[in-house]
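During the second half of the funding period, the structural biology subgroup turned its attention to how the target accommodates small molecules. The most pressing case was calcium ion, which had performed well in the primary screen but for which no bound structure existed. We therefore specified the complex as follows and requested a full 3D prediction, including the ligand pose.
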Amino acid sequence: MRRGALRLMAAPAVVLLLAAGAAAVDYDDRANGNWDAGATWETNDGTYPDGTDDTATVDGHNVTVTHNIGPLGTVTVAGGTLKVGLDQTGAGPSAVAATGGTLRLERAVDWDNDPTLTLDGGTLYVYGFSSGAMRWDDPVRVASESTL
Ligand SMILES: [Ca+2]
Ligand SMILES: [Ca+2]
């Protein structure tokens, strides 16, 4: 009886452990490259930020987004350059924070998560191609003492 009860209690614990195995990863850039190239990120396991709770920090290299991204957690630009070079219509991150470096928006952005773009340092570079204007359809927050 007791063993049976223990087994029943252990089953949910195993499920919880399996769920934890798919837990969020905090990605940190380690090389110049595309967002979806494993070599761009410190994890060194071929993966890239592509999970609901994954976060990504670009703080020293040039990273280029070439496909729709998300759903994701927070994306932070603290150094280097994050270039969004494709019209973004996917889920996107839950928040975008620019605290340093350069965030280059070169095409239209309208993520389904409607992330707030918080500018608190760094440079926001907005560039519209002749074939269509650049557009950011989500909220923008500019911290005090910042320049837009
Ligand atoms: Ca880094
Ligand atoms: Ca949106």
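Two results from this model are relevant to the next phase. Strands lie at 26-28, 33-34, 55-65, 72-84, 93-105, 116-119, 123-126, 140-142. The pocket of calcium ion (ligand 2) is lined by residues 110-112, 114, 137-138 (CB under 6 Å).
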